[in-house]
Design a protein that fits this description.
The protein is mostly helical. 98% of the residues lie in helices and 0% in strands.
Length: 131
């Protein structure tokens, strides 16, 4: 009788062990599912946050490039205007010097003409004296 009672208790213990094991497996599945689902939401939030951050950084870079392009265009325009002004100034200076040289050449030509006319008069005077 004692033996059958012990066997019944073992059967009950085996069932208890089975249900405890089954409960542990079920609890493990629930925890795994909860963590997996929660991680999907967390990962999605992290992904969305990172995507937003990356988008913002790209936007900042594009704005900086646009600003840099505009600054370069303005700088090029200013440099071009400065160079044009310098070229114009050099042209005016060159024209001025050209005009000065031209007037000096004209003066020299006039002086040569005067010298030739005086030479011609002197030659005539010498010829008159020699006759």
């Amino acid at each position: 009788m004692k033996l059958s009672l012990i066997n019944k208790n073992r059967d009950v213990l085996d069932w208890i062990k089975f249900f405890v094991f089954l409960g542990a497996v079920l609890a493990g599945i629930i925890v795994w599912y909860y963590n997996d689902t929660n991680m999907k939401y967390v990962n999605k939030e992290v992904y969305d946050t990172q995507q937003s951050s990356i988008t913002q950084k790209l936007s900042d870079i594009q704005n900086h490039i646009t600003i840099s392009k505009d600054e370069v265009k303005e700088s090029v325009k200013a440099s071009k205007k400065n160079i044009t002004e310098q070229v114009d100034s050099l042209k005016e200076d060159l024209n001025s010097k050209h005009n000065i040289l031209k007037s000096k050449v004209d003066q020299v030509a006039t002086q040569q003409a005067v010298i030739k006319s005086r030479q011609a008069r002197l030659i005539e005077d010498v010829k008159k004296i020699n006759k």
